[in-house]
Each structure stands twice: as C-alpha cells, then as structure tokens.
Amino acid sequence: MAEVDVAQGGNEGTDSVALGAGYSTELLELTEAEVDLTSLYLDPNNPRLVVDPVGSGQLKEDGVAVQPAVQANLQRILEETSDVAPLADGMCHVGFVLIDSVVVRPCDALDGAYIVLEGNRRIAAAKSVLADAVRFHSLPEAIRESFSPIRVMVYSGDDPKAAWRLQGFRNSGAGLKDWGSFQKASYIFDMVVNDKLSITAVKEITSYTAGEIEKYIRSYYGYLAAQKDPEFGPAIAPKDFSVFHEGVFDRLRKNPFIPWLKWSDATHTFGEEDNLNDLLRLMKEKDDATGKPRIERVNPDLRDRFSVLLKPGNELLLSDFVDGKMTLDAAHELARAPQPDPQTANLDGLLAELSEIEQRLRGLPVVQVRHEKRVNEFVSSTQGVQAAASEVIDDLSK
Questions:
Q1: What is the pLDDT of residues 206-252, one digit of tens each?
Q2: Three-class DSSP labels, 14-27
Q3: Which residues pair with 293 in a beta bridge?
Q4: Assuming Cys at both sites, which of 16, 118, 123, 277 could form a disulfide with 166, CB separation 3.0 to 4.6 Å?
Q5: pLDDT given for residue 201 in this prediction
C-alpha cells in the first residue's frame, strides 16, 4: 500500500489542476431516464454500508446484488442505521421530491434494472412506503404517482469507485445525511494514500482544512494499527474509529496519548504495544459494579478524564486504574484534586537518599582515611549520623 507522510502534509501527490483531467469527467456525462421504483436496486457497495471499502473495489457482483435476500438485508440495514423512517414519513406528506438527483448505473445481471449509486437512503425510504400497502393506498393520488416512475441520472462509465466519487463529493462536506467520521476518513484516506492526491487537491474537493485532512489520515492509520493488536484487534470495528479521531488524535499540542502510546507518523505504528493493549482493554472490559465499559465514552471519559491520568505526576493513579484498583471517576477526581504544598517532603526521594547514605557508609575507603590521617573527622561525622538515626528511629517507634 502506498503511504503518505502526514507530518509533511502529503503534498507530493497529484495537484488540483491535474485533478480535473481524468478524475471524474465521466460523471459529467450522465443521461436522464425514468425508471420504475421496482427496477431500482440498492447498492451493496454503498459507502454507508460497507465496513472497509478502501481500495477494495466492488464487494459484490450485480448477480448477488439483485438477489431478494441481499436487497432485504440492505433495506433493513439502511432503516436501522440511516434514519430512513423519518424520510419515509416526509415523503408521505410531500411525495418523492427530486431535490437532488438519484444517480444509477445499468445492472449487468438484469435487463432494465439499475443499481443505485447515489440516493440509496431515499430509494430505501420510497421502497418502505411502497411496501406498506395500506399506508401507500391511503395517500393522495398525486403523492402516490410521484413514487413511480422516478426520474434518475444514469451513469454508464466503468469506474468501480463511482459511488465513492459521487457520495464523497456530496457527503464529505454538506449533504442531506452527513457521513460519519469513519466514512469521511475512508474517503479521504483513499484519495490521499491510494489515489495519491495531494492535500491541496483534497482540500478543494472536500472543503476540509489541511489539518482536518491530516487528522483523518492519522486517525485512520491508528485505527488500522489497532486492528493488529493480537487480543482486541479482531473486535475493532468502524464504530470504534472515534477512539482515535476524537480521542487519541484529537489534539496534537500537549497530547498525552501520543507519547504514552509512542505513535509514529513515519511508520504509522504504536511503539508501546502494551499500553495500546491496555487502552483497548479498558474500552472493552466491563466494570463489575456497573456492567459498563471501564472507559465508557470517548468524550468525555477517554479524551477529558483518562487523558489526565497520562500526565506526569499521575503515574500511580494511572496504574491503579489500569489494574482495576479504582474507577476512572475516582482516579480522575484524585488527579484533579489540589496539589499538596510544595514544602511537603518527598518521602520516596528521602528513602532513596537514606539508601544512598547507607551504601556510601558501607563503601567507605577506610584504608585511604587512615593513610591520610583523617580518622577522627570521619568517626565524628559517622557518630553524628548514628545519633541522628537513633533519634529518628525513636520518633518513628512511638
């Protein structure tokens, strides 16, 4: 896989001037048609539905796509994940209104049929209205007639990423239903890493800033790196992308996650694999008392609370939380508590100093002291230490 140096901005790729020649010119040659709703098939390769589409081309052939079981499953997924019901309710009031074009391509496996490239959510909503016969036939005639035939724009090119091009232009910025951060990151990652477009070109396509683009790429690399964790990697799914985009890489300045995990922009890896494993475990592991993940939410639990434990001076609190000796709330509260008076003794430091004094006494160069005739000096000083030690022992024993 080609890689981009996020730290350098990735500007070595194709520039925006060259983008217009060959990137999406086929999309400018759409033709208009009217198609019956029953001849429109939801796209199983729809970016809203696929788990990891980047660089993989089409996931299902048309012969699979038109199978009733596949279409029923796609309809169910869209209804569960993309707010199809509110859109269907609105259609029942105003009809199927073509505010935005539905873009389709001819189906290779079925004559007269089309696969929906752009507009799957709207077509799923229309199909749900049509499937409810009682409701559909109770609608005014003009509204019923708006559902079929449907005016569409037909794409006849052969770009396997046509759906990504269309939906990316529409959803990476504004749109009727904005993509989630994982889909946006996948789209940007594909353009910069696989298509080798420059950050400047991607800025012009998406309207994102260079910093936002770099954050999406870095977060996607982090997501891919986490999937390699032998224990929790197989369970990392798109819904976990926010751990990296909104948590681990949310900020670069004074970001405690990056040194704790030893993230490298050069190799796109986490150097502290044990710490990464701990983080993933804490996001998945359930608290015995509450039954909820020990770090339940990315915001504020991971980003604003757990991150405090990673700051210098909170090592013991971090260790106690990771080891399950205290909750995140308790550890965070102690970490944010007023710090002790600077004059308060550093007991660990004192113990270290006493141990050093003991070692120095045991290693005293007696022969040299005698040779230089400084016995009385050292005896007097050692007796002073002995007297002070006796007083302290007495005080501690009371």
A1: 778 899 999 999 999 999 999 999 999 999 999 999 999 999 999 87
A2: ECHHHHCCCCCHHH
A3: 286
A4: 118
A5: 81
Say how many residues make up the chain: 398
Local confidence band at 34 (pLDDT 50, 70, 90 cut-offs): very high
Strand pairing category for 40-41 and 114-118: parallel
pLDDT in tens, 184-209: 999 899 989 988 888 988 887 777 88
Domain boundaries, the chain: 30-155
Closest CA to 294 of 318, 267, 262: 318
Question: Cβ of 60: how many Cβ atoms within 10 Å?
Answer: 15
Q: What are phi and psi of 154, to 5 degrees?
A: -100, 125
C-alpha triplet 295, 297, 299: angle, nearest 5°: 120
Contact 176, 138 (CB under 8 A): no
CA distance 20 to 241: 31
Residues 6+ apart with CB under 8 A from 342: none
- Distance of alpha carbon 233 from alpha carbon 226, whole angstroms: 6
Q: Which tokens hold the place of 241?
A: 């992308």
Q: Is the torsion defined by CA of 131, 133, 134, 136 positive or negative?
A: positive
Let me know if 180 is exposed, middle or buried by CB neighbors in 10 A (0-12, 13-18, 19+).
middle
User: Taking the complete model, does pTM exceed 0.70, yes or no?
Assistant: no
CB-based burial of residue 136 (10 Å sphere; 0-12 exposed, 13-18 middle, 19+ buried)?
middle
